Predict the 3D structure of the following.
Amino acid sequence: MPATTWIAGDKTQLDSPGQIYVAPSGSLYTCNFHDQRILGFAPNARGNVAPIRSISGSNNPVNACDGVAVYAGRVAAVGFQPPKNRVVAWSEDSNGNVAPTRLIFGPATKLDSPSDVAFDTSGNLYVTNSDSNTITVYAPSADGDAAPMRMIDGSLTGLSRPHALAIDETSQLIYIANGAQEIIAYKLSQGGNVKPTVTIDGAKTGLDYPSGVAVDAAGYIYVMNYPNTGGPFLTVYAPGSNGDVAPVQTIKGKVGMGGRIAVK
């Protein structure tokens, strides 16, 4: 199935974009892995269009940007390349070479190659750490060398190179694109060495190196797969899916490099 809409071209400033995020306003946000730009596009932007916001320059401390999220007028991004593990936040209307309003950075943070970031509706920040196989959660006011308010960590968690995360407020679950062939989920309130509440895994699932995950308002779970061969593809699972379940929809076609996904 070919794409019905696209944003591409020299005006866009896109350069190996990582996570994508649709803000409540409808604006689309992403961040560039190569030049660290945080880009915002107008709702319904199409084609070779310039972003309405582009945060870049010497005041942008993100390194190897791979995850971005927006909530309550704030945009947050993570850079995963050591030794510059950090979570950085700006006001959503920031543009140009502007300093962030928050910078979570230092040994107390337990950040270790952070690969994605998300807000819950309370403003707490959730981060997947791909090298330490952990999820760290920070208070809305966290700044500087701030310790996480809780952390999912340990042998029971099943975490293995977590790539991406998505929060479903309705079910109070945080979904993780984990390892080579599974999606796992935990309760938002969980911390410590805990088993996943949900594990979507097995031959029927069709999962193949899931690299992005999103959940829509109806609870459908969308997974971008980025296999070693054959090209990226999208699998969609029914609300409440758990175990070795087949997707309700699989979309294949020319989707470029693939990697991350967002839904509105």
